[in-house]
Amino acid sequence: MKQFPILYWPRKMNADTDYQLARKVINGATGVMPDVVTGDVDLMLILEENPSATIYYPVFCESTGWWGELLGGSAVVTDKMIISPECQLMVIESERTANKAGKGGKNQLLAAEIYPASGFFKKMNSGIATVADMLATDAGTILALFTGKNQSQFINVLESTGNSYLGCIGRY
User: Fold this and answer.
1) Same domain, 96 and 114
2) Which domain covers residue 129, as residue numbers?
3) Does the predicted TM-score (pTM) go above 0.70?
4) Which of 23, 95, 121, 142 has the fewest Cβ atoms within 10 Å of its own Cβ atom?
């Protein structure tokens, strides 16, 4: 059984400054050096076996679709830590643990495809929804992952700010 905290690291660790920074940032935030998991990872299995664990999941500037790991699970992104211009850590906890600790509340991950208006980036980080990750497509749309509390309110804000909401890819 893995203990709190857990750092998932999919790349080689030797001479990787982001890896060293991630460990240092986690240690500074928790007071404990993280256990490290490498290779293929099943986040839902880790959280099922270790409900009090916190997983630090790196998202590199070239990453696409990292949130697919959370599909259908009861995980909550409770925080985001920027460790370098190339890497940020998503702090992921079990929905039950996060709710008990008051971190998750009723937040959920909402993935959407959007045709953005000019003010998209200024207007979308609000109390209703916060951008967690995004990817631009060749078609000029954005696939974005938001944390928010209410799906219909999220869609209303998207549309009221002049963005075209093209549909929800998934609700996590």
Assistant:
1) no
2) 108-171
3) no
4) 121
Q: What is the pLDDT of residue 172?
A: 43
Assess whether 35 and 53 both reside in one domain.
yes
How distant, in Å, are the alpha carbons of 66, 98, 129, 146 from that of 171?
A: 14, 18, 13, 10
The span from the CA of 101 to the CA of 98, in Å, is 5
Residues 6+ apart with CB under 8 A from 75: 43, 44, 47, 92, 93, 94, 95, 172
Please give the tally of structural domains in the chain.
2
CATH (domain of 119): 3.30.70
Q: In terms of domains, do 13 and 77 share one?
A: yes
Specify the DSSP class assigned to residue 24: H
Specify the 3-state DSSP secondary structure of 79: strand
- pLDDT tens digits for 87-139? 888 888 887 776 555 554 556 667 777 887 776 666 666 666 677 777 777 87
Same domain, 86 and 158: no
